[in-house]
Inverse folding.
């Protein structure tokens, strides 16, 4: 494994190439697909950069058990559905809010509702 460029930097270069060199010289479906590909590459770069947003660690503490992120999320959902966990309890609500913000940071980092929530969180 190389130190430089990082995987995120490589993905950023691919996305920039698609936007700056492919999209301008194509039209129609090819240009559209190049923009979609650039957005997908950006999304993967954000996923790598953000990791799981601390979700697995928070879930382990919340549920008091170990497991994969998928298993822990399934246990959380089951606990809420079976009313073993109260989604309005401060620790559960805090986790759900943090997980939602982490997912938005990856999927829709420019979404106005997300940006407003970040400002509100810092206040």
């Amino acid at each position: 494994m190389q130190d430089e460029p990082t995987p995120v930097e490589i993905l950023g270069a691919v996305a920039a190439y698609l936007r700056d060199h492919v999209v301008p010289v194509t039209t129609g479906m090819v240009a559209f697909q190049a923009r979609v590909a650039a957005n997908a590459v950006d999304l993967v770069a954000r996923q790598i950069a953000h990791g799981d947003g601390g979700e697995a660690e928070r879930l382990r503490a919340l549920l008091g058990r170990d497991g994969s992120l998928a298993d822990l999320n399934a246990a959380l959902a089951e606990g809420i559905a079976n009313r073993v966990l109260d989604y309005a309890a401060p620790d559960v609500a805090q986790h759900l809010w943090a997980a939602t913000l982490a997912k938005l940071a990856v999927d829709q980092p420019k979404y106005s509702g997300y940006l407003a929530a970040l400002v509100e969180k810092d206040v």
Notes: Residues 7-50 form one domain. The CA atoms of residues 67 and 80 lie 18 Å apart.
